[in-house]
Each structure stands twice: as structure tokens, then as C-alpha cells.
């Protein structure tokens, strides 16, 4: 259709409609000229991890040591690493629906069982405490929270997150994946809230995921990152070290 001259708005990929900022491209150019073309540390360079720690503190109210952070080849690898390191056959992964296609597929790769928590249009596609409670069980290994949401755009308010945290406290064996990669794509006065900041008592089992793909239109650069408990981060780094090693040094 595009070849025929039609304007097509594709909703298939989370691809920003602006270019990677020129300053980023120039920084990559300088890095290559400066010889930053060798293998980087598997879990990220100290300078990058320090910058990520500052970002989490500044924008999310979260304090992470460098040992609490990992840099991966896109946010998708963060999820892959975490699920591979923790899921046993038959473990359940609770996913709010509508959902991004890769969450249940990644869970199934490792023998996990996706369980869907329905987010209704009448609720603005936000996840309610009742819907989450209905999906939880003693076999729940992970709960995925993707807000602002792909594909619905739903944003969870502070009261919404507090209600979700109250449910999660009743399931101490469940890890929590907070995929916040769309945090800056909010409009009309909406505000993003990190659940690890809303419920700091749960931070020891929350993996907070982010990356440069959406906010900075760097989808092809493949840089994702996460903060979480150091034991989980170490296990994820072991997975990554035997899969892809570190992120492209220039990126």
C-alpha cells in the first residue's frame, strides 16, 4: 500500500516516529573512533551502569547499586534472561491482557504457563486488584506489569498501583516484572509510577525493566537495562554471558 502511495499507520511495532537524536549518533561515532569496539563487560560498563543508577534515582525514586543493574541486548533480552533463570516447568506467569505478544511466548519457552488477567475497556484497560487476584495462585512465579501499556496505552495511577501491591503482598513467592519502557510516552497530564517506589517493601522481588528504544527512538541500537535484587541480576548475567555476552560496545 505504501508503494502505491497510500499513507499507512502501522500499529504492529512499538516504533517511535522520530529519528534517533543527532547527539546520540555523534556519541556513537566518537566512541568508535576512540576504540570502544572491544568486548564490554557482560552486564554493562561501569560508566553506563552508573548513568542508569542516576536515571532510576532521578526519574523513578529508586536507589540501585551497580551490582543491582544489568544491561542487555534490548529489553526483550532482560525478560528472556529473567525467565530462563527462574522458571521451572509448570510455573505460572500472570500477564495482564491485552498484552505484548512476547510475554507469553517467552514464558512458554521455559515451560511456564501464561495466565491472563483481563483488563477491561470499562476500566480504561488498567489492571484491577480483583482481576489480578483472580489470576494468582500458589504456582505464580512471575507477575508482569507493563504500564504504560503496549498495546492499550493504559497508565496506572498511584491508587491503582497501591491496590496491586496489596494483592502482591499476599503472594511472597512471586517475582514481579515491571516493564516500564514506555514510561515517557504519557499524555494529558498522566504520570507514570514505578511499583518499586510505590511499594518499597516489595522491591526485593521486583525487576524494573527499561531501555532506550522508545523514549529515545533507538529501537535498532538494542540497549535495554534493569534493576533488581543482586542474586537475580547475577543469575541473569550468567544466562546472558552464555547467550550473547554484552551489549554492542558502540551502542
Automatic annotation (TrEMBL):
Biological process terms in GO annotation: amino acid metabolic process
Sorted UniProt keywords: Aminotransferase, Pyridoxal phosphate, Transferase
E.C. code: 2.6.1.-
InterPro entries (UniProt xref): Aminotransferase_I/II_large, AspAT/PAT-like, NHTrfase_class1_PyrdxlP-BS, PyrdxlP-dep_Trfase, PyrdxlP-dep_Trfase_major
Keyword NAD: no
Keyword Membrane: no
Signal sequence coordinates: none
GO MF term list: L-aspartate:2-oxoglutarate aminotransferase activity; pyridoxal phosphate binding
Cofactor field: pyridoxal 5'-phosphate
Chain ranges of the Aminotransferase class I/classII large domain: 7-245
Highest taxon listed in the record's lineage: Bacteria
Cross-referenced Gene3D superfamilies: Type I PLP-dependent aspartate aminotransferase-like (Major domain)
Swiss-Prot/TrEMBL catalytic activity: L-aspartate + 2-oxoglutarate = oxaloacetate + L-glutamate
Family of the protein in this entry: Belongs to the class-I pyridoxal-phosphate-dependent aminotransferase family.
Binding partners and assembly: Homodimer.
Name of protein: Aminotransferase
Gene source species: Nguyenibacter vanlangensis
